[in-house]
Amino acid sequence: MSFSSFGLSEHLVKAVGHYAAPTPVQTAAIPVVLAGGDVLATAQTGSGKTTAFVLPLLQRWISAPHETPRRVHTLILVPTRELAAQVRDVVQELSQHLSRRIKVVSAVGGVSINPQMMALRGGADIVVATPGRLLDLVGKNALKLSSVQALVLDEADRMLDLGFA
After folding, report:
1. 101: left (phi over 0), alpha (psi -120 to 50) or beta
2. Residue 77 backbone class (left: φ over 0; alpha: ψ -120 to 50; beta: rest)
3. What are the sequence ranges of the domains in the chain?
4. Which of 12, 36, 96, 100 is in Cβ range 3.0-4.6 Å of 8 for a Cys bridge?
5. pLDDT of the residue at 43
6. How many helices (H) and strands (E) does the chain have?
7. What is d(CA 148, CA 77) in angstroms, rounded to the nearest whole number?
8. Residue ranges of the alpha helices (H) in 19-98?
9. What digits encode the pLDDT tens for the residues 77-94?
């Protein structure tokens, strides 16, 4: 199986051109996410889980109507700042060949909220956030979630372990 067999855009196939073939978690998850279905996946670190959800979500973003100002299409919740940075980097890497620029905002605690609020002015296509900072931004009316088409709970078990219930 190849990434092109999923029906991904040529830009996304190009972005994963350095991978030999989809991993088992990618082979299982990508078609389901493309179809708008729900996925619960567990796999070892380094198995390609992030790419398994980012690729089809980018394809869905490409296919969605685009509005000005931008509205949040995808919300990715993660338990830590470090994971937020990793996920943001994967989104940016995989979207670099797209014909239209995607705006990804990382919103995490432990740092000033002001730059994150400024980054959200004019909207964002994808927001990668930790739960606490997400609540802060929604509470300050800096982030509207009414247009979210896809929600990812990355490492949901860890979020529960950390008390985000």
Report:
1. beta
2. beta
3. 3-161
4. 12
5. 86
6. 7, 4
7. 12
8. 24-34, 49-63, 81-95
9. 999 999 999 999 999 999
Segments in the chain below pLDDT 70: 165
Q: What pLDDT shows up at residue 165?
A: 66
Beta bridge partners of 150: 74
Strands (E), the chain: 74-77, 104-107, 126-129, 150-153
Does residue 54 contact residue 91 with C-beta atoms inside 8 Å?
Answer: yes
Q: Which residue has the tokens 């979207």?
A: 95
**DSSP letter (8 states) at residue 5:** G
User: Which CATH code of 3.60.20.40, 3.40.50.300, 3.90.650.10, 3.40.50.2300 fits the domain covering 3-161?
Assistant: 3.40.50.300
Residue 106, strand partner residues: 128
Q: Is the peptide bond before 69 cis (omega within 30 degrees of 0)?
A: yes
Which residues contact residue 37 at a Cβ distance below 8 angstroms, ignoring those fewer than 6 apart?
none
Residue of 76, 91, 86 lying closest to 12 (CA atoms): 91
Taking the alpha carbons at both ends of the chain, their separation in whole angstroms is 38
